[in-house]
Amino acid sequence: MHMESLKTGAFEQPGENGVAPRAAIIDGQLVIKHPPGGPYPVIVPCPGLRLVVNGEERSEPTPVNEKDRVEIIVQDERREGYWQVKVTADKQEALLQVKPWVLVRRQVRDLPPARVLYLEVLEQEDFYKPFTLEDLTREIERQGIQYGIDWQACARGLEASTEGTLTIARGQPPVPGKDASVELFFTTQQRVPVAVGEEETVNFRERFRFTAVEAGMVLARKHPAEVGQPGKAVTGEIIVPPEPRDIEMTAGSGAVLSNDGLEIIATIAGRPVARGLKGRVVISVVPALMHPGNVDITSGNISFTGDVMIAGQVEEGMSVEAGGNIYIEGAVSRAMVRAGGLIEVRGNVFSSLLAAGSTVALQQKFGSILARVAAILEQFVAAATQLIHHPSFKKDDLKGGIGPLVLLLLEKKFRDLPAAVELLKKEAHSLPAISMNGLTALMNDLERLVRMPLTINSLKQLEAMLKEIIAWRDEVNTPPQGGADIIIHYALNSTVVATGNIKVIGEGCYHTRLQAGKAVAVHGVFRGGEIQAQGDVYIKELGSRTGTSTKVETRAGAAVTIAHAFENTSIQIGSRQYSFVQEEWGVRLWLDREGNLARRSIPAP
């Protein structure tokens, strides 16, 4: 584009010498006008073109006159496109990524006369396909894409005027299967709250119902795993869905598995228990013993494997031991009550020992022996399997059963198995915390193995025996969930120990020691004695006006709340101690982040 002189009305505006300096773009041509000797118009270049004045390219605003050789060189632009086909990692989609080629055509915009002329560019974009349908078809074949091709999407990719991604093939995703599950028809809570209306008088004794079942009740139902549906990749391969997880449902003591293996049915009345053990659910029924009167010299001590319910009281010198929960309607006087689960005494406790969760320790010895027998038997079965499948072993020797092989292993390699089985049998009968219901059959099988090995016919018998003893080992050695609680109304000169919480819901405690693995709550008075807890402690009234020494101790991280405290009582939280030197109301104590004793007043009840 070269400079031209053009006489138009717009340029005939007078300046100092009769003509104002002006430049314009008219019909794509640069026109310059100025008075002789200046001043001169200024041209400002813009992106997309080159401004060349007298053979020199300018990028800054440049004054020009009629004698200058001015060139405005328009630059067209070519933007490269691309395309590719990509199969996703799961082979469920084939994606076409496309960006068309673009040719940007430019021309200078016409501009009216101005003393400073800012050049402008007009652009037009022309789009070109980066590939043909034949190119795309060859690429689809090269990548092995053969299923779920969307040819309409392919056509849209050919006509695309903007950069983007289109799905040109879709596979069929596999339908996942459904994991097996076990539906329980009882709550796993030991006690189920009973709703109480707002206008009713709350009687704590009626606030809970203990979970119980009758013989013949269906306790659980297994919903088998459901296999999923296979899918198909865009490349044609069959995609197999993940194998659904199965779960083994086993009947423990007091229950039986139905013939189809899908239901667990109670065989006795009692409290249902469910335990999860590494992909297996064991469902049992803990039997309940109902004692209609007092526990005294006439009845003798009570030792039972399940729950014990006593309608009367436990008298002096007597003991009650249970593997499950113990409920006592009357008082406990100079006696011992020990339970593997919860203890609730609705009468008063005088000079007695109550221990909840203590029978778990009694099971440890039996569990240890059971684990030892299981380990020996596991090695025994492995050795028998290896010998049976060894090429040098003569199969004709076992036509009458594997008894001779079992006898050989007992005599040569596993001489300690008979003694271990005898010890297991003795311990099982001597421990009241262990239920023999269901275990008797296993003990008989083990005794036959070590005493009459020639009667063992097949390897499957040994494997079934091993499976059963492993199930018992896992069940016995699985610690109970949570701690065992104790609930009492009143205690005097007694020791109350629980692995869980201790709740005193009546008048309170006098000269008594409370030891809890979790929290302690005394809704009455606590006068004389001590409280040791691992959780929060709440006491309505602590100590006495006579200054009886009373102590509360808990771990760092717990809080102690006292509604009413007398002097000569002390609180220890972690390593920090606080002593009441005068009567106080509504105090909460805890340790702050720095480990210092913190205190806050709370409203008195």
UniProtKB/TrEMBL annotation:
<dbReference type="Pfam" id="PF03961">
    <property type="entry name" value="FapA"/>
</dbReference>
<feature type="domain" description="Flagellar Assembly Protein A N-terminal region">
    <location>
        <begin position="122"/>
        <end position="275"/>
    </location>
</feature>
<dbReference type="GO" id="GO:0000902">
    <property type="term" value="P:cell morphogenesis"/>
</dbReference>
<dbReference type="InterPro" id="IPR036145">
    <property type="entry name" value="MinC_C_sf"/>
</dbReference>
<dbReference type="InterPro" id="IPR046865">
    <property type="entry name" value="FapA_b_solenoid"/>
</dbReference>
<protein>
    <recommendedName>
        <fullName>Flagellar Assembly Protein A N-terminal region domain-containing protein</fullName>
    </recommendedName>
</protein>
<dbReference type="InterPro" id="IPR005646">
    <property type="entry name" value="FapA"/>
</dbReference>
<dbReference type="Pfam" id="PF20250">
    <property type="entry name" value="FapA_N"/>
</dbReference>
<dbReference type="InterPro" id="IPR046866">
    <property type="entry name" value="FapA_N"/>
</dbReference>
